[in-house]
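REVIEWER CHECKLIST
Item 1: Sequence provided? yes
Item 2: Single chain? yes
Item 3: Sequence as submitted:
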Amino acid sequence: MINLKQVTVSITEQQEKFLKLFAEKQYHGAPDNRCTSYPIHFVETKRYRYIPYSDDIAWAFDDKPLSFTSDSDYDRWYTSEVETVIEWYENRGEDCLIEIKPFKEIECKEIKAVNGEDLFITDYFDYFKAYGVHIQAIAWREEYYEKVAPFFILEEAKRYMKYQGHNLHSPRVYTYGMGYGDQGEYGHFWELLMTIGKQLNQVEQSI
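Item 4: Structure as written out by the authors:
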């Protein structure tokens, strides 16, 4: 048997609004729960991490795209070696003296480099050397999502993505549960908010 206590609390109009909406939209079994028990919704933004390229470990990252930068500040990355070379020369208002070909077309071949020397292409470093591009880094790009903001109400999470969209990159809402066998405080506070919201809605309906 659960002993219930009655307390009186003061809430703001905004708190009342959200408590009512929470009870209306996130009750147990609601579609907005996304088949999750005691859900919490996180807006997440896409981020990238870069793994330095090495021919010795290339076999382990075959499924990940390579990125290239000639920017000393590492701000501008390209996903194509050809694009990297083209941008290098366009930024300098110059023309490349040899035909710009993809790495795969000249890999394991000897070509005439921009400086007139014969150069055998074994890896991407040889490739950029042949074109006279001072490459700063070559890396595999791995994408992941970073949590930005939590919400009890799915509708509010979606609204956040709209008004903060300019600060987010390919955002999404991901719904998490409280965890298996979690006997901590989260479920109790979730139920408390739901109870208050339901009671507020009942009062409004009876008026």
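Item 5: Key structural point noted by reviewer: The helical segments are 13-25, 81-91, 103-106, 124-130, 154-163, 186-206.
Item 6: Recommendation: ____
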